[in-house]
User: What shape does this take?
Amino acid sequence: MKKLLFLALLFLFIQCGTEKPNKQKPNIIVFLVDDMGWQETSVPFHIEKTSLNERFHTPNMERLAEKGMLFTQAYASALCSPSRVSLITGTNPVQHGVTCWTLRRNKSPEGMNRILDKANWNLNGLSPEPGIDRSFYFPQILPKLLKQAGYHTIHAGKAHFGAKDTPGENPLNIGFDVNIAGHAAGGPGSYHGDKNFSAVWRRGSDIWDVPGLEKYHGQKINLTEALTIEANAAMEAAVQEGKPFFLHMSHYTVHAPWEADRRFVKKYVDSGLNKTLANHASMIESMDKSLGDIMDKVKALGIERNTIFVFISDNGAPSQMTPNLPLRGHKLTAYEGGTRIPMMVKWPGITTETKRNNHPVIIQDIYASVLEWAGLSELQPKLTDSHSFLPLVKGETVSSDRRFIWHYPNLYDQPPYSSIRLGDWKLIYFYTDQHHELYNLKEDIGEINNLAKEKPEKVQNLAASLGDYLRNAKAERPILKSTGEPVPWPDGYLDEN
Ligand code: CA
Assistant: This one.
């Protein structure tokens, strides 16, 4: 009898021991916007309000900011695929090698160059399976780890992790339980339901047609709204199942094609903006409405206290938009306008009022942070370049000696480069003519004064650090046509033969 009682107690103990932590696991929503610049919101991320902050209406971002931490120096890569692969693998572009945008298997979007030949980058994107040529095989993909730990994992919107006809094109293959409208392409055919979200209207290829939302075809509904309705339903299903969820709410908006969200465009036309800019501003407000609708749904489901939000964009605003002033450059460039993005974190019980944090963080840090929230930090592979930002959100002091690395050895649209930030200093190395640019971001956020000639020692130190990093990681570089060899490393080293 005593033995039976002991066994029963032991059983109860084990049950409690296994169930309790699961119940406490927070829901995590990563709200990822596409191509949204640092200034394209009414929430100021700069030290003062700018004319761009005045242009945009994002009341729900303001609402999130009221109980959130604003990161004023948050970074991503300067374009889509590299940032997205970084977010769910915790690796930087040197490590994952998906340095440019992906779409078709074994095809690069790059053009010809007079001086350089293409680098051998991973043009097939992320792969959950080994053996796919020119892809980044990585077993510990974030949604996969979360799913194994009991999370219901939901992807909604733009995926763009792997090229078409590879396993990485389908979010279901990389650990998501649910895939709402994600596939290989990095943009939608159309944002309009009455155009069936298809690229037919602009004579585009059907590779851009958004999959899986057929029930909205023919309707006057915006893609952003349809995704929000579906994401909210998926969250509700997870709650009903009694599971914590991870929602990767990855909007197609505000990426091209810049089509109006008809619900919001009038006020921007009336304010005197041209058609493209008015359409774009309406897309920003459309994104913001989605954020508000998801926040409302979380509240209605009674899970607000146990649901964390991370808001982020994947790169700066593109050149066709208003300049990212006071930042220099735009999407695809090495400058801050390409890489600095808006980011906020709302962590109930921890962020209780607006706080601003000026410590640099980068998109792959979401990987370590989400794992820590889920109690899974021990699963993070050592070789990743992902630092949890939870200590920063809790207001703890964090060392500033981390080096941030960007790597774009590609021949698409902008000249290839690698760059490094350490403290307030940033060094950019351009592969085409092997010149360096040095900026002090604290004194010169607009990267106007290139100090490379004035401070050769600083250039040397940072170039050595960047060179070391790239060599150790066996980074791919473009090839000099004149020699048939890769361009020398940033510190001038040539490979030994
Ligand atoms: Ca993007």
